Amino acid sequence: MCQHRFVIRMTGAVSILVDQTTEADDLWIDGGAVIDRRGGPVDPPHHAFDVSGCVVTPGLVNAHHHLLQTAFRTLPGTRGVPMAEWLPAMAAAYAAAGIDASLAAAASGAGVAEALLSGVTTVADHHLNWPAAGSVADTIAIAEATADAARGLGARLVFVRGSARDDPQVAAASAEAIVQALLPRTADGMLQLAVGPAGVHSDSRETFELLGEVADRHGLRRRTQANEQVDVAIALERYGKRPIDLLEEWGWLAPDVTIAHLCAVSDDEIARVAASGATATHAPGCDVPMGWGIAPVSALLDAGVTVGLGTSGGGSNDAGHLLADARLAMQVSGLVGAQLPARTVLGMATAGSAAGLGRPELGHLRTGAAADLCVWDVSGVADAGVADPVAGLLWASPGRRPRDVMVGGEWVVRDYTLVRDDERELVEALRQRVGR
Known about the structure:
The chain is of the alpha/beta class. The protein has 14 helices and 19 strands. Strands 8-9-10-11-12-13-14-15 form an eight-stranded parallel sheet. A seven-stranded mixed sheet has the order 3-2-7-16-17-18-19, covered by helices on one side. It has a four-stranded mixed sheet with strand order 5-4-1-6, with no helix packed on it. The chain is globular, with a radius of gyration of 21 Å.
């Protein structure tokens, strides 16, 4: 974490997004956090940075990713197919590659680098796939490799020990071991641990309960997926109930739980999620192109559900570009409810996602916030004629990337380039590992 005191001079900047409002004051940062220097003595900064012609936002928070899938994009048989066909196609690809710490390191390195270069400063990695005959030590090595990749690049990581058809006792023992091994690394806020079964379509009540016990022992967040096409059908066939019914029965509708996707939810289910205090994660870049549905985000927000934004993984969303998915979320929202304003969706990609992770210091730039931010140059032709430059971040220039990115008071991207690693070397490491 950076211990320097410096100021980002907002004079000449177009705007700064703070809780979806415009703030013109300079942004003071000391010790990796935002500080308030108004109305008191101002020590001279060690550095001053000019952001003229730019929009400054909090760092984006990708609340739902599967970093391993960065190694498995655009595979034949995985595009536009029912989830019942997609799952075995992906499983075959994992088996052919062989899941181990080296694959996790290469895939996470590329995936986290992509995230930083697109403005994401925190990635929640719901890791679901493990070696078929692996030991607990192997799962610890995968978690450590993922955490090391993120820390090496300067990004925050939320590592979610997930499960997809794992033996419940094995999954719980692995989760406990990962927590014991990695918990000492979480003190600086760069790493967070969580648990999360893939969903009721793949994991039993016992898995949910045992992973919940690990979470309870260590004060971890819980995360799962629900109400895409496959799990609704399987839940009805297997249990005669819908996924939200089962999550409620199994103790997984609660304030510490975040549910990803929620494409096919009724008004009653939305009300029950809201009443429980559980949060949601929208993943349109996965669900829309695959034909798996569109979450009714406006209805969720109207009911009082906090909604974050995630990309999901490269096996269904071939990009880890959260701002592009925010644009998509805004564009398709009117198909299933009221059209979402750009600033609302940006709020989902920042404060909404952070709330679901239980991280009040992330997703905003008020006093006390972590100094995670993005500087977006909006002075070029792609933004010519834009009336609201904050809304223009989504409406204009599809695929835009930030000029500069800061995490914890340290620049990790400058002039569109990674500071701590070479992008080409990360690509080559993944190519060598998977042969593509």
